[in-house]
Every structure is written in structure tokens, then in C-alpha cells.
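thought: fold this chain, then report.
action: predict
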Amino acid sequence: MRTVRLSQTVSPFGVGAIVDVMGESLMGVDISEWQYDRTVQVKSKRLEERLGVQELRTPPSVPARPSIHSPGIPYQRFPRWLFCQGCRRMHHYRIQQETGDPPLCDQCKSKLVPMRFIAVCATKGHVRDVPWDKWAHSAYESEAQRRCQKHVLIFDMAVRGNEGLSGLVVRCRTCGAFRDLGELPARGALGRIGVACSGGQPWQRNMPSCDQPLEVLQRGATNVTLPDTTTALDIPEPAEGMRDIAAEVRQHRNFEDVRSAPHGPLASALIQLIAQNLEIDESQVRQALDGDPDEGLRETRRGLLSDEWDAFLEAAGSDDEPVGTPEFVISATEFVRAGIDNSPVIERLGESVDAVVLAHRLREIRVLHGFRRYSQDADLVDVHLGRRGRGRWLPAVESFGEGIFLSLNQDLLSRWEQRDEVRSRVTVLESRRRRSIMGARLFEATPRSVLLHTLAHIVMRRLAFSCGYSSASLRERIYAETAPRSEAGFLIYTAAGDSEGTLGGLVREGEAPRLARTLIAAIEEAAWCSADPLCRESRGQGFNSLNRAACHGCCLVAETSCERSNVLLDRVLLVGDDETPGFFEGVLESIRIETVERSSDLLDE
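observation:
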């Protein structure tokens, strides 16, 4: 029995992911292996309809001190090649040997630990152990070594004592064959010794062969498992829900059978069956088969964000009384409140802000669709790899929190984003996004989206000093669509698996004049970075140079806080420079004038 937090069963330790527990390496199996009757339903009609699934279900929550009778979800040991820390002997630990206890060496009874490397299919997302017995004998020096059958492997240091991987060797004690690990991570290293992809995941058996290349990764590398998730807030249901036919077709239990063999003998019958089940035309099923599933999922996520934008704007048009549902309690508030001695800077900043909405209680649902391995453009591996005997369902977790929603003045924003200098600067980021291997999973880089994303980051960094939550507890949601509707805002919120996310500290910081002071401080800090002038004048930073003036000293936040991988950020769009006008350039100038006036008054005194 091993334990992980309930929220981690979707990401980062969900299906297909490796989790290290007390020196053991385990991988989560797909949901077809879960005990369905032990899972708990997460109700969200809007999200279910958008994703085209029958149910969302979360693993059962177990007591703080679980027993063997407590419900849970299965994980399997991976990699299965282990080595002894005492005698250095390697063991291929089979599933029949599992007892539930940490494995021990059968020779010296020392603890066995997992090997560091695994083999990943670069295209299809399959994964397997590195065949260490074959690797050790791939550089044989005699016929006896080539024909060796009784392998007794030792994982040891090289005699020469080289640094790096070349200083580690796998040696066969039976025949003396050995090979170091220096060439192991090289592209195509396993293919050159005749090792092919297994065609499946470690818990699957008798899978068809796969002809795609294998690449060797460290089991702790971030690209071993790249989860594909959708996050949505539980908002009031719209009066008339819009049916997403394509999503329903993709999530039908027979869809994968058709997509895997679209011209097979059963394809026509399955298409007809899907159409009858969903009460749609067969042409709509074929249209979903021909479409790009990733693009369909992106459209679904955009639709979810647009629904949330509408929900927040409804509150912005009402009075200060809380509205919504028990899981979505929001109220409008003033950014600049009358009767308070506001400074000229706050008055100037108030012209740029359109509305502020306080979210006293939020319910966030995070759903796992599948995962990729090795790269973001690899095929998506579904979370359900077994036979589908019931309606489509997906694993999900819910969390509760509070937040601050802020929208910008769209008239000022529209005039600013049309300026040639602004568009020219953002065009550089958009061209890099299109060339990036993860570009398809990022939002389009427009002046509006980069501005809002960067503004949310600097506000989060500032709020962490006063709201009572750690910086890693804050998250963002960006609303920056320009067509067919116009959105310009962001939500900063905190969400936890219990009531700790609703303590009230973040909502309190959204009240006037605290939020205005936070924004002013954030904008003033964004004007200068400890890495300037290198940061401010940078032509490209971060992954694939997808950031301009943004680094750890000024804009970047925790990976769990950013929904867009800490890229497509540029604080020059906020504060401006000699060539590019910043959206808050006038506010920053007012801050400087006020600072000079206060300094003069102090000198006069």
C-alpha cells in the first residue's frame, strides 16, 4: 500500500505517470484497471456535455492510515529492472514476485532500487524497460559472449573510472560481456542493437508490434509523461446548453475502434451504431473521424473559458450582493471606491480597468484525457486502454477556492493593440510559437493575450506577499479571445482539495483600494528587473525563446500556477520602452511624477 494525494491522481501522478515512493518507482495504470464501483462521481453537467462524456469520476478518498482493505487505484512497478545497493546485482522483477513489500535482493537481502533509464516510443507514447541483458551483450568480444544464455548482470563502475555515463557499466558475470552507458542516451541507440518498441504500456500484454523508434530517457525526466488535462470552473448552467456533437462522437465507447480501422470490415456498422446511440446523422460521425481531435479539444476549452467569462460579466453588471450557486459565489466590487481619498495614480489606473468581480467560493474540476510521451506532438495515449463495456467516463478531481476576476477597458485596449509597434513586437513571439514543438498546445500570441498573461503573472507575484497564500497556491485563467467575441480579463484564484482554499485572504485583497495598490506596486516592479538591462533588451528567453522581457527575476511563476507553461510573456508590453508603447505607460509615468512630488515635499519639510 502506497499513498499519493487525491489531487495528484490526475496530474502529475495520474495514468501513465511515474511516481517515486520511498525509493520505489511505480506507474499508474489506465482507468480500465480501476475498480469502477469504488470511484466517486464528480457532477458537472456543463463539463460533461462539453467533453461529450457520460460521467466524471474521482478515485476514492482513503483514510489517513489506509489498510489493505481500503479502496484505491492500481499502480505497477516500473521499471522492472532493479539493482541491489549492496552487491550491485541486477534483477528483473516479475509481477509474479510482487508481495506488496519493497523488493529485496535474494542474495544479500539489501534493498533493490530501480534502474535510472527507460525506453520511450517517440511517436506512439509506448514505454518499456531497457533490455539490460541485451545491452550488456551488444558489444560482445567472443562467440561465447554472443551465445550466453544464463545472464547474471552486475551494475558497476567502469575500471577506467570515467566521469559521466561512460563510467557506469552493465557486466555479465557469466560470460564477462559488458558495455558502458555512454552511448545509451544517443538517438537510435536501442534500434542499432535490434531492440524494438513493445507496442504498449508496461501493464499491457500481447500488444501488436510497433515500428516507431525508441528513445532512452531518465525515468524522472519531465517528458516521460506529458498529461493532457482540461480545467473548468463550476459555473451556473446556461439556460440552453450547446451540444458538441464532435466531442460526443470522440468520447463514444466505439469511436477508438473505428478510428483505428476506418476502412475495416466493421467500420460502417460501428459508424451506424454511434449515430443511432447519439441520435445524429452518420455524416456527422464521419466528419468527427476526419477532424483533428486536438483541435476539437482546443475548441472545447475555448468554449469553457467563454462560458466563464459570461458568468463573471453577469455579476459585474449587478450590485454588490453575492450571486451564483452554492459552488460559485461571486459579487461585483468597485475598483475605485467613491468617498476614499484616492491618489491621482489610482484614478489614472481606474481608467484602464473595466470591472472587478470577487469570487468568494469557486469549485474547480480538473479532468485527465490522456498523456503523451517524449514530445508534445506525439500521439495522445487515451486514459482508457481496455474494452469499453459502459459509457465513456474520465478521471477527474475537484477542488475549492476563491479568486479575483479583473477585466480591462476594451476601448483603450483595442486602440493600444492596433499600434504598429505593439503588433510588430508580438509578431516575433507568434512566429516562434508556430515553429515550436509545443506551439500547437499554446494560445495564439496576440498583443491582448500576451499583455493579459504577463499582467496576471506580475499580479500573482505581488499578491503572494499579502493574501496569506503561498505563491505556488495561486493560479491563473486568461480570457483573451478576440473572435467571435471580445474578452479581456483574467482570474487569479486559489484551489485546494479541502476548505483551505476559501480562507478569504484573496477576496480581501480584491477590495478597494487594496487591489489598486497591488496593481500599482506590480506595475512599478515590472518597470525594473534585477537582470536588467539584459532582461528588458532580450530578443528571446525561455523555452524556444518564447519569452521576450520576462525571467525569474520579474515575471515567471511556479509551474503549477501558470496554465500556459511560463511562456509568451513580455513585460515591455506593460511598461513600454523606447520603441514599444506599454499599455500602462501612462500609469507608470504618473507613479514617477507622484514619487518626485512626495520626495520634494519631504525635502521641504
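thought: worth noting. The chain is about 25% helix and 20% strand.
final: C-alpha cells above.
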